[in-house]
Structure formats: structure tokens, C-alpha cells
Amino acid sequence: MHLTIDPASPTPPYEQLRSQLADQARAGTLPTGLKLPTVRALAEQLGLAPNTVARAYRELESDGIVETHGRKGTTIAAPGDTAHRLAAAAATEYAARAHHLGLTKEEATAAVLTALQLHY
May I ask the CATH class of domain 13-76? Predict the structure, then answer.
């Protein structure tokens, strides 16, 4: 696991850490089930505050990249497993909201496509 934090970067340190871990997990460099260092250990290794590492881990967990198992630690999640489940839940919520707002399928789909173009 190779991680570097650039203190001169305009990108906050937690985001630098989050994006590097996410990229390495998606590329398979960090294999499924790999136990990540504790928050304190990684913070010390990188010269960061523990809260910075904890925030990166929380965001990775909410994105389905890692799974936290309490005292057993944080591990790399199976690719697509949690991420697909979370995406499906978000899509279901969106569909219900769009229907409640009275949008047609075409209008709801157009809104999604527009949003995806902003992020991809």
C-alpha cells in the first residue's frame, strides 16, 4: 500500500487519502479482505491527525470500498458487493422521489443522465 499526502495540495488530506485508497482498491492493488492499518497507526505513518484518517475511512465505508468490523478492524470490501447494493438503494430512493414529484420515466431518466455527465 503506497500512500502519499501532499500538504501543499488544495485537496484536503482526508480526500487525498480517500481517493488513493479507493483507486488502489478498485484496481485490485489492495485485495478484498485486506486489513487496513488502524486509524491511529495510519495517522502516525502519514503524519496526519487521527480524525483525518477516520474521516477518510468513514467516507470509504459509505462508498462501499471498505467494511468496518468494530474491534476487528477495517478491511477492503468485495468489489461491487457493497457498492452495487448502495447504488441500487439510491436508485430506488430516486425513482420513488421522481414518481412522487410527478416526473415521467423519460424526465427522471434525463435528470439522471445529466447528473452522470457531471461526474463521469
Answer: mainly alpha
Domain boundaries, given as residue ranges, for the chain: 13-76, 81-119
Q: Which of 50, 28, 85, 34 is nearest to 17 (CA)?
A: 50
* Spatial distance between the Cα atoms of 21 and 52, rounded to a whole number of angstroms: 14
Can you spell out the DSSP letters for the chain?
------TTSSS-HHHHHHHHHHHHHHHTSS-TTPBPPPHHHHHHHHT--HHHHHHHHHHHHHTTSEEE-GGG-EEEPPTTHHHHHHHHHHHHHHHHHHHHTT--HHHHHHHHHHHHHHH-
Instruction: Give the per-residue pLDDT at 41.
Output: 97
Q: How far apart are CA 28 and CA 68, in angstroms?
A: 19
Q: What are the average pLDDT values for consecutive 10-residue runs of the chain, which has 120 residues?
A: 94 97 92 94 97 96 89 86 76 94 96 92
| pLDDT value, residue 80 | 65
Q: d(Cα 35, Cα 68) in Å, to the nearest integer? A: 10
